Amino acid sequence: MSLLDSHLELDSQVALRPEPFGALAYHYGNRKLIFLKHPDVVRVVRELDGVTRLADVLRRCEIDERRWPSFESALSSLTESEMLHEHQVAPG
Amino acid sequence: MSTKSHLVEQLKGGLDAPICLTWELTYACNLECVHCLSSSGRRDPRELTTDEAKAVLDELHDLQVFYINIGGGEPMIRRDFFELLEYSIGRGIGVKFSTNGAFVDADKARRLAAMDYLDIQISLDGTDAVTNDAVRGEGSYDTAIRAMQHLRDAGFGEFKISVVVTRHNVDQLDEFKALADSFGAQLRITRLRPSGRGADSWHDLHPTNIQQRQIYEWLLAHGDNVLTGDSFFHLNALGEEPLPGLNMCGAGRVVCLIDPIGDVYACPFVIHDEFKAGSVRDDGGFSHIWKHSELFTELREPQSAGACASCGSYDACQGGCMAAKFFVGIPLDGPDPECVGGHGEAAILAASATERPRPMMDHSKPVRVSTPERVPVTLGRR
Amino acid sequence: MDETAVATETDVEASEELLEEELLVEEISIDGMCGVY
User: Fold this and answer.
1) ipTM
2) Residue B108's closest CA among B147, B72, B139, B69?
3) Could you read off the pLDDT of B295-339 as tens digits, one per residue?
4) Chain A contact for C33, CB < 8 A?
5) Cα separation, B294 vs B281, whole angstroms
6) In this complex, do A37 and B3 lie within 8 Å of one another by their Cβ atoms?
7) Which letter, b or e, does each residue of B18-34 get, where b requires 16 or more Cβ atoms within 10 Å of its Cβ?
8) Strands (E), C1-37
9) What is the sign of the dihedral through the CA atoms of B148, B154, B155 and B158?
């Protein structure tokens, strides 16, 4: 599944601290610290609700489609670091 | 300019809150390591009370500090140690504490293993008792290993083993890695600074130029899962490949120190009035100091390269470490005493002719000697 | 004159910047800051 079709959401163990350059993201569980280096990527991360497709989130945040590859890379990194994950449907 | 250095330039200008910080809970210690950066040994009667400590933690929570590094002296000596650990974690501040392991018995190990958002760092400076105890005192190697065994047996998970690299243990890096692996622990190696009691032993203990290259190359070859606290960035001038980390001095910019009596310093390696930003007991507490103190404001201004301006390596090494220069008696705009380009040698010689800065406080235990007439005399360590 | 006909130099530069790959995130170890125990 392409990342653009995924329903990403922020992990519950992640704290986002706003900074002039964007934000700091810290995962309390795995101690990873990631700098979100642009306010636009912070906006996008805050909009992730686990329900909306990423492509639609990017559109909603008015991110120019020419920048989508950069955003996919960034969100892919965040997913690898366990800061974001595909929304998990509760069993039963 | 690469995107990484663009971010670093922003961080040099400081943030509204530290990213993490070191907090020495007490100057009391059961050991007397020769290189102790805080000259610890005896408790200071002005130590922060439990309530004062909790108030600081409340401030750190409000600032959204994610993680603190607790040390000392030996932090587990404080009677409220667990109370403060639990309070910090309860307020959403993760904790790593640094210990010599003397108080990590089987029972405490189990208690620590049950806690979440907690990391432990056991100090060790040699892979055998002879090497380690020469620096940390007789029996300290056994104590550390026992603590590690208790943590392993209690199922604590991955703890850290933290080593100060010296002339005498630099050949043991592979053994340190093997020791860490044997415990399922993570190795951390850090730079010796001439701070605290370290000022006296630095000339004999600090790695030689050849050994510095050895450290750099070892880190590049084997340092994948090895932490360094970003303390070796001065070695980046040795090659093309920078070591992992921000590679910048974080003092007063992204980190700082809170000492046992509530004084705030730029970092744990500069416990000296010259680098004191204020006290958490002042009006406005820690937040005011972090955001508005004269010292931190100054450190966040663009720093001049000084004597290093004409050196091609400055971008890589950033002129080295303030603490290393200061306590050796080199001006802050001079070269690092361990400059890999060899520019530190002349600076060290020039410095020895003048007075080296001495710490304002010394919590070392007094040394007792007997005179031939068997009259015990108590001398201070300085 | 058609106001939209001529793109200014800065408009061209700005859109070129957008097309370049931006590094939007960067991981640093929580231990990767000097001045910590």
Assistant:
1) 0.93
2) B147
3) 999 999 999 899 899 999 999 999 999 999 999 999 999 999 999
4) no
5) 17
6) yes
7) bbbbbbbbbbbbbbbbb
8) 25-29
9) negative
